[in-house]
Write a structure and sequence with these properties.
The protein is an alpha+beta fold and 122 residues long. It has a single domain, classed as Nuclear Transport Factor 2, Chain: A, CATH 3.10.450.50. Helices cover 16% and strands 46% of the residues. It has a 6-stranded mixed β-sheet with strand order 2-1-6-5-4-3, covered by helices on one side. β5 and β6 form a beta hairpin. It comes from Pseudonocardia halophobica. This is SnoaL-like domain-containing protein.
Length: 122
């Protein structure tokens, strides 16, 4: 899944490599508690990714699904110590070139479908 590969790149040593998986005119919404980040184009997404603090977080996908050109994932954000800090869901529209054309992500620190891990292995 392209959206899952994108998050794996974000969590890797070179987060900006995820830009290779998006269309040049990608549109996105990242909804965080009390804040929404929107953008259009790779430059906007690059600015968001570059501005994120390096904290060792990981997107651990728990569930995934596809329906034609739409991909959906649900997961838990974990810190380096394995402690869960919240849940996320993301939906992406995949282009004919197999890149993200549009995506929206929602994060919540307390409400989730599954209990958050309290620590240990990530």
């Amino acid at each position: 899944m392209i959206i899952e590969d994108y998050y794996a790149q974000l969590d890797g040593a070179t987060p900006l490599a995820g830009l290779d998986l998006v269309e040049p005119d990608v549109e996105f919404l990242i909804a965080l508690p009390g804040r929404e980040i929107t953008g259009s184009g790779r430059a906007d997404l690059e600015a968001y990714i570059a501005g994120r603090p390096a904290v060792g977080r990981r997107h651990r996908v728990v569930s995934r699904g596809t329906d034609g050109d739409v991909e959906m994932i649900y997961g838990i954000i974990t810190e380096g110590d394995g402690r869960g800090t919240g849940s996320f869901s993301s939906v992406a529209l995949v282009s004919p070139d197999k890149r993200l054309a549009r995506y929206q992500a929602f994060f919540h620190p307390t409400f989730g479908m599954f209990p958050l891990p309290t620590g240990g292995a990530a």
